[in-house]
Write a structure and sequence with these properties.
The protein is of the alpha+beta class. The chain contains 28 helices and 26 strands. Strands 1, 2, 3, 4, 7, 8, 9, 10, 11, 12, 13, 14 and 15 form a 13-stranded mixed beta sheet that branches. Strand 22 and strand 23 form a beta hairpin. Helix 1 packs across helix 13 and helix 26 packs antiparallel against helix 27.
Length: 836
């Protein structure tokens, strides 16, 4: 191509964009409406794309990502199917021994403990002479092979042997800095739980934010057996039903998982006892599925579901669809006001190609301006997204990866659609009709397209409103549903940290005396209404234990939730006894042989009523070594688990060694002062333990964080969808009012009132909104019904939700269209009819 030709083309395109720029300025109102709508829609789409991209990136940084599997423990028997993320500790060595296709096998076991720089009888390691003590909730016992499976960035030490020796610990850089400050820490010591000295054998970077496996430190797995008593250690090491450890397997590259899966299933048949062989087996879950496809696995690191990804992606597309509908619809309508301009350009020699380029130039220019504005809006929008999703996404993600190419492609497509349709629409009209400013049947045909687009965007907005209302009402229901106990104003104070050993065993007579004295001092404080102890609180994941009710045998394999409570627990939690009696110290034997069960257990064990259960023999454990006694009471069913799960059987006993958490019911006034007073008493009796607390109602509400995030996002986007629909409706009603100004003036001359003229315009748009409601309501009802079915307890889909949503949509339409109708009705008929 010659230089002159390039210059001519350059001048031509510059002229097109200059013309486009002038056209945008000449139609400021319509241009601002289109710019605002499209930029907001693109901003929402960008933010959701950032969120979805981040969710899909989880765990992909691992070098062996496709070959990593977690061993799930499956129970399939006795009428129960349950997938668990944890396995017996004995599973790892057995799989490593029997599965040659496994390149590496590693276990992790989570335990809360206090770490300090003070050793037994002296100082093992200090930073400036100051002893540092912290409770760490995210330190695992781990096999050394864990670093072969997952990708760690080592700063000190060697991956080959960092966790091969007893009493060795690998720290993240943040944890190392917290205890030892800057500088090398290899070889330094930490005191574990005021009893065992651990030597630092390595330092690694913290796992990336997009990793499901997160920890602050790793202790050699064999050390676990030395921090427990010998009977407990032997039980953990050899028992095939107790499953506290996650087990990971790295398959050799290219190894098909099918044959390995079959071999893994046989491990329980080879090593387990009769009960395990009959009802349990192992299964390999790809680590690629962990973040989004394993929310049904009990104990899984991620509770996220790919369903929410589909929901968010769908919302993004719908918001963008509404924005693009506005853009194209208003461009189409605006083109009808430029008929004479197009006619003059045709007379001046402009062909179809030149007119197409002019309209495309305007569409692309406005589209790219909207894209630039969307970037500006996305930066503060990212902060809002982080607040809702609890992520820490930075602005740099907005122009990383595929974001820029995706946005450019989106802008080009939007600009082409916005410019191409009006251009083809207008340029096909006859020259005479253009010069006269007459659109004829073409305008009527275009009206059908515009009306279809209005129906589509309002249907989307209505569906989002219905979804937001249903989700919010379900959350309110979950928060306020009577749970069978009083969750308010209950402080939860863990005695041995938030994730202690479920076996207890740390409570000797001296410790029990301190616990009793602590309770007595608190009861004397006026702001404390009740104090009690237990091994777990509602909302916690309770241990499931083997039980043998009267009329059953060991082989029935009945496992129920098991919680140990103090004598005054039921009274402190305001639970109701429906048959029998509560635990009592006066009997002198309740801690040895008394059990209380719930109503669900009565039904599960085959008894006709709570009264029938009283006095029945009961064994907690197997028939040889278990705790034997009888049932003294039945408590009314209470929800100790999330409300997306039905009520289940449970048993309570008094077992002091298992106590690990105080429940303190406080008065609602002067709570900060009460907490300070409780902390002072705590420091008197438990100076070696770190005081920490939370409130039971907050713990229970946190179980529904994913649903709460969904509610907020859908709510925000429903508001945005309504806003975009309104500005599109505003623009189109403005165009309609201009198009019908002569008709309105004639009607006004003939005696029509202002309300009648407003209703004239409103009637046409009302019909479109009603059609949108009829389309959106059944679709939204079907989607929300499917979502609600994930909950054991749920609200009904009340008719009023759809009625109120419809009234809201009609009201918004009336206010939007009515404003334009009022302006048109107030125009002097003499001015609008002057040309007739």
């Amino acid at each position: 191509m010659a230089v002159d030709d390039v210059s001519v083309i350059s001048i031509m395109f510059r002229n097109y964009f200059k013309t486009a720029y002038r056209s945008l300025l000449r139609h400021k109102g319509a241009s601002l409406i289109k710019l605002a709508g499209l930029s907001i829609g693109m901003c929402c789409c960008m933010l959701i794309l950032v969120y979805v991209t981040d969710e899909l990136s989880y765990n992909t940084f691992n070098a062996h990502y496709p070959d990593i599997y977690r061993v799930n423990f499956i129970k399939d028997g006795e009428g129960e199917f349950r997938k668990g993320a944890t396995t017996p500790c004995s599973a790892g060595p057995a799989i490593e021994k029997d599965i040659p296709q496994a390149q590496a096998v590693a276990r992790i076991y989570s335990r809360t403990a206090i770490f300090s720089t003070q050793g037994n009888g002296g100082v093992a390691a200090r930073d400036g002479g100051i002893v540092k003590r912290f409770e760490e909730q995210n330190v695992f016992f781990a096999d050394n092979a864990l670093s072969k499976i997952f990708t760690f960035q080592w700063r000190e030490g060697r991956a080959a042997d960092a966790l091969t020796q007893l009493n060795s610990i690998v720290l993240t850089t943040a944890m190392a800095r917290k205890y030892f400050g800057d500088g090398p820490v290899l070889g330094k010591s930490l005191l574990y739980d005021n009893s065992k000295v651990l030597q630092v054998t390595g330092v690694i970077d913290a796992m990336p934010a997009n990793s499901d496996l997160q920890f602050d430190g790793l202790i050699s797995f064999e050390t676990l057996y030395t921090v427990e008593s010998k009977p407990v250690a032997d039980f953990i090491r050899t028992n095939w039903l107790y499953d506290p450890a996650e087990t990971f397997v790295l398959l050799r590259p290219g190894q098909a998982v099918g044959p390995v899966e079959n071999e893994v299933r046989q491990v329980t048949k080879k090593y387990g006892d009769e009960r395990v062989q009959r009802s349990y087996y192992f299964s390999l879950q790809p680590w690629t599925a962990n973040h989004l496809y394993a929310s049904d696995v009990v104990g899984n690191e991620s509770t996220n579901s790919v369903t929410y990804i589909y929901i968010f992606a769908g919302i993004a597309l719908l918001i963008l669809l509404i924005a693009n509908i506005n853009f194209i619809n208003l461009s189409n309508a605006q083109s009808l006001t430029r008929i004479a301009e197009v006619g003059i350009r045709k007379v001046s020699g402009a062909g179809v190609r030149q007119l197409l380029l002019q309209f495309l130039g305007e569409g692309l220019l406005l589209s790219f301006l909207a894209g630039a504005l969307a970037f500006v809006l996305a930066i503060p929008g990212l902060s809002l997204l982080n607040a809702v999703t609890q992520k820490e996404l930075h602005a740099s993600v907005l122009w990383s990866g595929m974001m820029i190419p995706a946005l450019v492609g989106l802008l080009v497509c939007t600009g082409l659609l916005a410019g191409l349709y009006p251009a083809l629409y207008v340029t096909r009209w006859r020259l005479i009709a253009l010069l006269k400013g007459e659109t004829g049947r073409a305008a009527r045909g275009g009206r059908l397209v515009r009306q279809s687009l209005i129906v589509t965007q309002f249907a989307v907005a209505v569906a989002l409103i219905i979804g937001a209302v249903v989700i919010q009402r379900q959350l309110v229901f979950l928060r306020n549903k009577p749970l069978g106990f009083d969750k308010d104003q209950v402080m939860v104070v863990p005695l041995f940290g938030r994730n202690p050993s479920p076996f207890g065993g740390k409570i000797d007579s001296a410790q029990r005396a301190r616990m009793n004295a602590f309770e007595a001092d608190l009861r004397a404080y006026p702001a404390v209404n009740a104090v009690t102890l237990s091994s777990g609180m509602p909302g916690d994941q309770l241990v499931r234990g083997l039980v043998i009710p009267e009329g059953h045998v060991d082989q029935d394999d009945i496992f129920v939730a098991w919680v140990s409570v103090d004598y005054d627990y039921l009274a402190a939690m305001k639970m109701e006894i429906v048959a029998g009696r509560d635990f009592s110290k006066a009997t002198g034997t309740d801690h040895l042989q008394a059990f209380i069960i719930n109503e669900s257990a009565v039904r599960s064990f085959g008894w006709s009523s709570p009264a029938e259960a009283i006095g029945k023999t009961f064994v907690r454990g197997d028939s040889q070594t278990g705790k034997k006694g009888h049932i003294i009471g039945v408590v009314r069913d209470f929800n100790f688990d999330k409300l997306d799960r039905p009520l289940a059987p449970m048993v309570m006993d008094v077992n002091v060694p298992r106590f690990n958490v105080f429940a303190i019911r406080v008065r609602p006034d002067h709570v900060p002062g009460t907490i300070s007073a409780i902390q002072r008493v705590w420091n008197t009796y438990f100076p070696q333990r770190i005081f920490e607390y939370n409130f039971l109602d907050e713990n229970i509400n946190s179980l529904y964080k994913a649903q709460e995030n969904l509610s907020k996002l859908v709510g925000y986007f429903a508001v945005i969808a309504i806003f975009l629909s309104c500005i599109g409706l505003f623009g189109l009603s403005s165009f309609t009012a201009v198009q019908r100004i002569k008709e309105i003036s004639i009607r006004k001359v003939l005696g029509a009132t202002v309300p009648e003229l407003i209703l004239l315009l409103f009637r046409d748009f009302l019909r479109l909104v009603v059609i949108a409601l009829l389309i959106a309501s059944p679709v939204a009802a079907w989607l929300m019904d499917k979502w609600l079915h994930d909950f054991a307890y749920r609200i009904p889909l009340s008719v009023w939700i759809f009625v109120v949503t419809g009234l809201l949509a009609v009201t918004i339409t009336f206010l939007t269209v009515g404003w334009q109708g009022l302006r048109a009705a107030r125009v002097n008929p003499a001015e609008s009819l002057r040309s007739e």
